[in-house]
Automatic annotation (TrEMBL):
Organism name: Furnarius figulus
Domain of life per record: Eukaryota
Encoding gene (name): Lrat
Family in the record: Belongs to the H-rev107 family.
Keywords attached to this entry: Acyltransferase, Cytoplasm, Endoplasmic reticulum, Endosome, Lipid metabolism, Membrane, Sensory transduction, Signal, Transferase, Transmembrane, Transmembrane helix, Vision
Annotated protein name in UniProt: Lecithin retinol acyltransferase
Length: 230
């Protein structure tokens, strides 16, 4: 039987990157892939539409504001150091993204459809079928998104781009990706019963949940394991 620890650790690391909006890299070049300008036909988009861009390990979300503009939440370290919109509005690099996740800082920003999608395919209002009867008016969704533009806190699990768009379009912040992540973690703990995997999950929870640095490890892990066992 294969050792479950490396498998669990690998899965945890993969799932932790699930909600991180790291841009794809060009194979073997070390540079960042660039989307083709004018690739998207925005004539089919309406103000207030919820846009999804499926990636390999995650889905990125945004609210279409009209005139080739999309509001979306992205982790970014820069708002923690400056309020200069000219600098913040520059295209977010991988380094800014990762540091933003670590520092739990982000911004709701407005970008072109091309910069938002970054070469990926776009689904329009794909989540409406899951929130039947709860869809707000398109103008209300767009206005909610516009009001939230600016710096905000970030959490991989509790305040990501999916929470932002569901709040805007459906009136309640929800993340199906977070739900799937939590179920996967529970499955690892219950099925594998690995001490090391449990420790890794506990450490991951510290990062994701943003627990205070002064909190002791026993205080963190005991309720965490009780929750997992439930």
């Amino acid at each position: 039987m294969k050792n479950p620890v490396p498998q669990a650790a690998s899965l945890l690391l993969e799932k932790l990157m699930l909600l991180v909006h790291v841009r794809p890299l060009l194979a073997g070049s070390g540079g960042e892939a660039a989307p083709a300008p004018g690739y998207y036909d925005t004539s089919c988009f309406k103000r207030g539409d919820l846009l999804e861009v499926p990636r390999t390990l995650f889905i990125h979300f945004g609210i279409y504001l009209g005139e080739n503009r999309v509001a979306h939440l992205m982790p970014d370290i820069l708002p923690a150091f400056t309020a200069d919109r000219r600098h913040i509005q520059q295209v977010v690099t991988n380094k800014r993204l990762i540091l933003g996740v670590m520092a739990r800082t982000a911004s709701v920003r407005v970008d072109t459809v091309e910069d938002f999608a970054y070469g990926g395919s776009i689904l329009v209002n794909h989540m409406d079928r899951l929130f039947e009867g709860r869809v707000l008016g398109s103008e209300e969704a767009a206005r909610r998104a516009e009001k939230l533009v600016g710096a905000t806190a970030y959490s991989l699990l509790w305040n990501n781009c999916e929470h932002f768009v569901t709040h805007c379009r459906y009136g309640a912040p929800v993340s199906l990706q977070t739900d799937r992540f939590c179920e996967t973690v529970k499955m690892i703990i219950r099925d594998q019963r690995s001490v090391l995997a449990s420790v890794l999950v506990g450490l991951a929870s510290i990062v994701c949940l943003g627990l205070a640095p002064s909190t002791t490890l026993p205080t963190i892990f005991i309720p965490f394991f009780l929750w997992m066992a439930g």
